[in-house]
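G., the chain you wanted modeled:
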Amino acid sequence: MSLIVQKYGGTSVGTIERIQTVADKIRQTWDLGHGVVVVVSAMAGETNRLLDLAHRMAAAPDRCETDVLVSTGEQVTIALLAMRLKEIGVPSRSFLGHQVRILTDNVYSKARIHSIDATEVTEALERRQVVVIAGFQGVDPEGNITTLGRGGSDLTAVAVAAAVKADACEIYTDVDGIYTTDPNICPDARKIYKIAYEEMLEMASLGAKVMQTRSVEFAMKFNVPVHVRSSFSDVEGSWIMKEDKGMETVVVAGVTLDKNEAKVTLKGVMDRPGIAARIFGALAVESINVDVIIQNVSEDGRTDVSFTVSKVDAKRAVAAARVVAEELGGFEVTTSDNVAKVSIVGVGMRTQAGVAARMFKALADAGINIEMISTSEIKVSCVIDLRFAELAVRVVHDAFDLGVSP
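Predicted structure as tokens:
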């Protein structure tokens, strides 16, 4: 029999009735003789409720204490689920992150996993117990509770699957798989039944919200097969797995859209060695992730530099850039959040020419101007005006014939 890790998100355990349904689904797997480890999130809306309480107590709540607070959401869910499993005749045991010993660093609210001691989990499995683990949380070397950031339960599930050498990690959610693009934008979007780790990693980082980026990185590093599927049906979902030759025949696997972008422009920057390092070094000190970068050099020894960051980091990015501007004799710093990023992703792009040109033509034919371009071996991203974001997704999706055939 197989060893399976199942993860259920907030919508899947959002009510008592849904927790009961999840317990029934777990029992079906356990009855077949499989070993089962379950990772759960807090009930839908609970983390936001707890964060709201924190901000009502303090203008800038202490991050360590905030982690103590928000981690209680998962504690409620694991207890309720373990109770229900026992009620329907399935032996089970619940574990908090520190009991499993999910060891992390001490970067509160977005901690990174260092190691997992799976000893007690393995012993419980040998007793034929279903192990129920609180997602999203761990413990630092000093014993403080930490959390792994939004979507952290996905990361917990994949990391536990790697630690116990599970045969598969099933991510149960409110959608039945990964699609070629957001079906709310393109109703004819197709389900992708197999997608390479690299493709999913790019899609997650470019705006696809099905899985957290760090969980895909972890799955790829430890070669954990991940099955994304619906909590509300038994249909086959999408497998995220190691690339095979068949995947290379698909030039573009999907189209993503990210509206959480802001563009920062530095005008009149001195064009000399070390300036770019000074500017982006200042952003790195503030832990600001920079995405697309372009530079235009003029004849007067000055240059304009534009780059994108997430909207939540835009104000800090502008502040950091202005500090550098004062130190270097001044340049203008402006920002705009009326942009979006549309991207195509596919491992087949490595061996196909003209893919970018096809995307650019589709946007041009729709009258959509491209402000910035970024490419890698398996993706092309274009920063465009936010007003045309969804239109851009539709025309690019059509250009690569990604829709369901009529």
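Residues 21 and 82 are 13 Å apart (CA to CA).

Shout if anything looks off.
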